[in-house]
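Below is a filled-in request sheet from our internal design queue. Each sheet records the structural input a requester submitted and the sequence that came back. We keep these sheets so that new team members can see what a complete request looks like end to end.

REQUESTER: design group, bay 2
PRIORITY: normal
MODE: inverse folding
CHAIN LENGTH: 176
BACKBONE (tokenized):
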């Protein structure tokens, strides 16, 4: 009976060196040590850190004018909102504690909706400032003035939100 050679013996033979066809003389292969041109030579000065800092350009005249226009419009809209809120407050107070079956409740809802509409007009100006901020970011110009105007406008919108919330709470509260 003839035996077939086992393939399991091949790794053993390779480790012993019997299959050393690839392990010829070292003079046939280049050395893996660093060669002279691969070594770092010379020295480089570190760049001056103060010179490397880039500063954004100032805002353009057009952008500054747009910020001023947005703030001016916000002030005018807020003044109209405040005047209407003073007119709406007694109407809402008169309808306090009533329900949809009462005509006063419907009138109070209309006043609150009108105030909400005016608030939305003021809040829409935030989109203009957001666009200016994005443009300033992309063109690497100063954004601080836009951010300050945005914060000021957000404060106005937040105060209008508080007034509307107070009127809604007043309407839902007990009748007077």
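RETURNED SEQUENCE:
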């Amino acid at each position: 009976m003839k035996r077939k050679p086992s393939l399991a013996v091949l790794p053993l033979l390779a480790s012993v060196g019997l299959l050393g066809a690839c392990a010829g003389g070292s003079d046939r292969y280049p050395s893996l040590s660093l060669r002279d041109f691969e070594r770092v030579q010379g020295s480089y000065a570190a760049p001056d850190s103060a010179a490397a800092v880039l500063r954004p350009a100032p805002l353009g005249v057009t952008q500054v004018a747009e910020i001023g226009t947005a703030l001016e419009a916000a002030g005018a809209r807020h003044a109209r909102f405040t005047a209407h809120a003073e007119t709406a407050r007694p109407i809402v107070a008169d309808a306090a504690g009533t329900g949809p079956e009462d005509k006063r409740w419907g009138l109070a809802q209309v006043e609150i909706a009108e105030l909400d509409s005016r608030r939305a007009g003021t809040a829409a100006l935030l989109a203009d400032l957001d666009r200016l901020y994005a443009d300033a970011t992309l063109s690497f110009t100063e954004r601080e003035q836009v951010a300050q105007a945005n914060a000021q406008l957000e404060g106005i919108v937040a105060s209008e939100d508080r007034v509307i919330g107070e009127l809604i709470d007043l309407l839902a509260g007990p009748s007077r």
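SHEET NOTES:
- Helices lie at 10-16, 49-52, 61-94, 103-138, 144-172.
- The chain has a mean pLDDT of 86.
FILED BY: M.R.
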